[in-house]
Design goal:
With 403 residues, the chain is an alpha/beta fold. It contains 12 helices and 18 strands. One of its GO terms (molecular function) is pyridoxal phosphate binding.
Length: 403
């Protein structure tokens, strides 16, 4: 997507607007499958929570992907997108037994991460295949909010609770067909991931009828030129060797599963905003854009750094700006960074906006959520309309306060 293409999209669909490149998504998917080409049975389940637009889900179906879902709503989106139930795994956290039973009734693969629900579900549905999410007690991830495999995490069943876990399975005679882990996002240290994998292999030996082992995901993507990222090719080589050796030890070929989200869509997305005001104070020059953390909360929530470029003046001289939004609290996207000289009306492009950006957007300040556009086959396709005021008030109910 060249600058002139993005500028035309901003003109045609107005700003702010999210834009996704289908070619980049396909390239990332192929990169991951190629890295694990030595594994006989590989299954990639795209993590819907990263970017849940139904057109994006349909794109992943054409690539041969399955889906990783965390809510019954995501399950239903996947079914609407044309995925069969067996192509979907349901990996919630802290949801009710009723929601898990709803997903099971739809026929998707169930993944349970706590002993209480496991015992209740196994007692009521012993024949339904269940995957178990294990907590390996391995700290991995780029931020404490996205590190989910450590000892104090709310996610997964502790490896120290394996005896209790086995007792529940023996008492209920339930069908365990998979085990799973996810240590966190933005993983850089491959050795830490491999260490956690060995824990999962050891745990797998307790279960005799497994069909797959799911290693989660969390691969780090680069956020700027020269940035460090997970060496997916090295991980593919090392983990494939260990997985194939384990399958021989286990006695049959299992499926190696992953749940990539950010790795597949982050770099494919950009977020386009228009500069409303260039404001200079005693010490700072602000570029104030027509958006805020209601549309892109990751910099404020995680401290994530999205590279920002001025595509209206990509060859202008560089100056220092702080890029901020229009929300009534502090919503700083970047502080004192070098950007080509900015004028009011310019379009700024935020990179790495494909994952956990639109899906975390809100109507804070009663603002509309932006449109989404898919750049596919060298054409811009609107895949979500910009909200209107009618959308804001649609589900509100006015009552007669004089009654």
């Amino acid at each position: 997507m060249e600058h002139k293409t993005l500028l035309q999209i901003a003109k045609d669909f107005e700003s702010p607007v999210y834009v996704y490149d289908s070619d980049k998504i396909g390239a990332q998917y192929k990169r991951l499958t190629s890295a694990f080409s030595k594994v006989k049975k590989l299954k990639l389940n795209y993590a819907v929570k990263a970017l849940s637009n139904i057109s994006i889900l349909k794109l992943f179906k054409t690539l041969g992907s399955g889906l990783d879902t965390v809510s019954i709503q995501e399950v239903k989106l996947g079914l609407m997108a044309g995925f069969s139930p067996e192509q979907i795994i349901f990996t919630p956290n802290g949801v009710s037994l009723e929601e898990i039973e709803m997903a099971a009734k739809l026929g998707v693969q169930i993944n349970i991460d706590n002993l209480s629900i496991l015992e209740q579900f196994g007692t009521r549905h012993p024949k339904t295949p269940v995957c178990i999410r294990i907590n390996p007690h391995v700290m991995a991830g780029g931020n404490t909010n996205i590190s989910v495999g450590h000892i104090d995490s709310k996610f997964g069943i502790s490896i120290h609770q394996i005896p209790h876990l086995l007792r529940i399975i023996d008492n209920t005679k339930m069908n365990i067909n998979g085990i799973h882990m996810h240590t966190g996002s933005d993983i850089l240290d491959i050795d830490v991931f491999l260490y956690a994998s060995e824990i999962l292999f050891d745990t797998a030996l307790h279960f005799k009828d497994l069909e797959f082992i799911d290693f989660g995901s969390g691969f780090k993507v680069p956020y700027k030129e020269g940035d460090i990222e997970t060496n997916i090719e090295e991980l593919g080589q090392k983990l494939s060797e260990r997985f194939n050796a384990f399958c021989k030890k286990y006695g049959r070929e299992l499926t190696l599963a992953f749940e990539p989200g950010k790795f597949l869509v982050s770099e494919a997305g950009v977020f386009l905003t228009k500069v409303n005001v260039v404001k200079q104070t005693t010490s700072t020059v602000f570029a104030q854009v027509d958006s805020g953390f209601n549309h892109l909360i990751r910099p404020m929530l995680y401290g994530s750094q999205h590279e920002i470029i001025n595509i209206s003046n990509s060859k202008g001289r560089e100056r220092f700006y702080s890029v901020v939004g229009y929300i009534c609290e502090t919503d700083t996207f970047a502080s004192n960074i070098r950007i080509n000289e900015i004028s009011e009306g310019d379009i700024l492009c935020f990179k790495n906006a494909g994952a956990y950006c639109f899906t975390m957007a809100s109507n804070y300040n009663s603002r509309f959520r932006p449109a989404e556009v898919l750049w596919h086959n060298k054409k811009a396709h609107l895949i979500r309309k910009r909200e209107t005021f009618e959308d804001i008030i649609n589900n509100q109910i006015e009552i007669d306060l004089g009654a």
